[in-house]
Amino acid sequence: MTFEQSLDRLDAIVGQLQRDDVPLDEALRLFEEGVGRVREAAQALTRAETQVQALVEGPDGTLGVADLAG
Q1: Which residues are bridge partners to 63 per DSSP?
Q2: What does each C-alpha distance from 9 to 48, 50, 69 come to in angstroms?
């Protein structure tokens, strides 16, 4: 599932949990799924952040434009 799909599913889960007629068992299942989606999304963001830093962080830790050709 892509990051965007995870966010869309989280939005749907929140909408379902906000309803008054959701049985407790279903609410717990949805909550558990939502926690999993949040973890997946957080991991995706961490991976993206790591990739960006690797592309632009210099050897001394300063940020700049990386020379991708070299």
Answers
A1: 57
A2: 20, 25, 39
Question: Does the reported pTM lie above 0.90?
Answer: no
pLDDT, one tens digit per residue, over 2-43 is 899 999 999 999 999 999 999 999 999 999 999 999 999 999
Closest CA to 38 of 12, 10, 15: 10
Q: Six-digit token pair at 42?
A: 């957080």
Helix (H) or strand (E) holding 32: helix 24-56
Task: Label residue 37 exposed, middle or buried (CB < 10 Å: 0-12, 13-18, 19+).
Answer: buried
CB-based contacts of 31-39 (< 8 A; 24+ apart in sequence): 33/9, 34/10, 37/1, 37/6, 37/9, 37/10, 37/13, 38/10
